[in-house]
Write a structure and sequence with these properties.
Elements: H1 20-29, H2 33-38, E1 40-43, H3 47-59, E2 63-67, H4 73-81, E3 85-88, H5 93-102, E4 110-111, H6 118-134, E5 140-144, H7 149-161, E6 166-170, H8 188-197
Parallel strand pairs: 1-2, 1-4, 2-3, 5-6
Helix pairs in contact: 1-3, 1-6, 3-4, 6-7, 6-8, 7-8
């Protein structure tokens, strides 16, 4: 039908059901001991919150998540089951984020953005590494686009390992949010990590989340 072989990367098999675990775990693992002791905070309506809550519990790092009133109740409950401190605030994610960053009671916690964060982007890059390991003759990677961390990480990793591979993005016809202009993001840390991963053992501490096939 397509004239080519199609391989799917089944990230829904992660514990919390999405690729977000990769970035969340890498971001937590990149913190200093003092930052881990104090804990982390994020604003999220669902998957990023679940990922932080789960991996925070696994790594012994306190997690606080500010979730807007529109967050699905199932995801709110699951975050609490994972041990996260959940604060319901704001009509949308923007208001939740402002509260997380500005409330005096939350100062001292390290804020982890679900997509605009170098370590989160580097974590999602493990997907690109795994894809090329599992399908060495891969020519094109097609990646969904939401906040942008997934395609940024995959493109950075894949193009670093194989500059010839093509990376294409899929965007919903009516995305819920639109940026007014591109926002440059430094990738020095991510590039340094990716460079150091070349020739490493099949699974290094930076491989975040399950290897999905």
């Amino acid at each position: 039908m397509t004239g080519c072989s199609i391989h799917l990367k089944k990230e829904q098999s992660q514990v919390t059901g999405s690729f977000k675990e990769r970035g969340a775990r890498n971001a937590i693992m990149s913190l200093s001991e003092e930052q881990r002791r104090r804990g982390v905070i994020a604003a999220s309506a669902g998957n990023h919150a679940l990922a932080l809550a789960w991996h925070g519990s696994q790594l012994g790092v306190p997690v606080t998540v500010v979730m807007p009133t529109v967050a699905p109740m199932t995801k709110v409950q699951n975050c609490r089951l994972f041990g996260a401190n959940i604060i319901i605030h704001g009509d949308h994610i923007g208001e939740a984020k402002d509260y997380a960053l500005q409330d005096p009671a939350l100062q001292g916690l390290t804020y982890i953005n679900g997509y605009d964060d170098v370590e989160v982007i580097a974590g999602t890059g493990t997907l690109g590494i795994e894809m090329l390991e599992q399908v060495p003759d891969c020519e094109v990677l097609v990646v969904p686009i939401g906040g942008g961390a997934l395609i940024a990480g995959i493109a950075l990793a894949a193009k670093t390992l194989n500059p010839a591979v093509q990376v294409g993005g899929c965007l919903a016809s009516e995305p819920s949010t639109r940026a007014s202009a591109p926002t440059p993001t430094p990738t020095t840390g991510a590039r340094r990590w990716l460079a150091s991963s070349r020739g490493a053992a099949p699974r290094t501490p930076r491989r975040c989340g399950r290897d999905t096939r």
